Amino acid sequence: MAEGKNYYIKVPGALVEVTEEVYLTYYRMRRRCSAVQEKDTYNGVTSYDALDTKDILGVDNIPDSKSPSVEDSVMGNLLREKLQFCLSQLTLPEQFLIHALFYEQKTEREYAKTLGISQNAVNKRRHKVLEKLRRLMET
């Protein structure tokens, strides 16, 4: 090696002689890793790997931001049940109107043609039925 001082890096099971440049680079890198770990510890940053258990990986605890929350799912189910109940409270012609316009996605004009009435009459009925349904949902 170079004249003067010898430089060594400790590796598992041995000391390896290296150049001054390799020695300095290695220990700068080690110090940088230590500084990052200290900063993470100070700021409370935790790796999901640290949450690993025998039964489950820590990464499996990451919530899926695209899936609905449990609360949203429950509320959606409750609202659907209430809507079904309120729809059953409507008269048969009102139920047919809702079914045709919202489930079959017929236009008011198409539905009016099947009943033999004007589109304007269907529109007025739709508004009345939706208002009645809104009142039923609020109770």
What is the helix fraction of residues, given as a range? 55-70%
Would you tell me the structural class of the helices and strands?
mainly alpha
Number of strands: 2
The rounded Rg comes to 35 Å
Task: Please provide a written account of the structure.
The structure is a single chain. By secondary structure, the chain is mainly alpha-helical. The protein has helices at residues 20-43, 70-88, 92-103, 108-115, 119-138; strands at residues 7-11, 14-18. Helices cover 60% and strands 7% of the residues. The chain is rod-shaped, with a radius of gyration of 35 Å. The mean pLDDT is 90.
Keywords for this entry:
single chain, 139 residues, mainly alpha, 7% strand, 60% helix, two-stranded antiparallel ribbon, 2 strands
Annotate the secondary structure layout.
Elements: E1 7-11, E2 14-18, H1 20-43, H2 70-88, H3 92-103, H4 108-115, H5 119-138
Antiparallel strand pairs: 1-2
Helix pairs in contact: 4-5
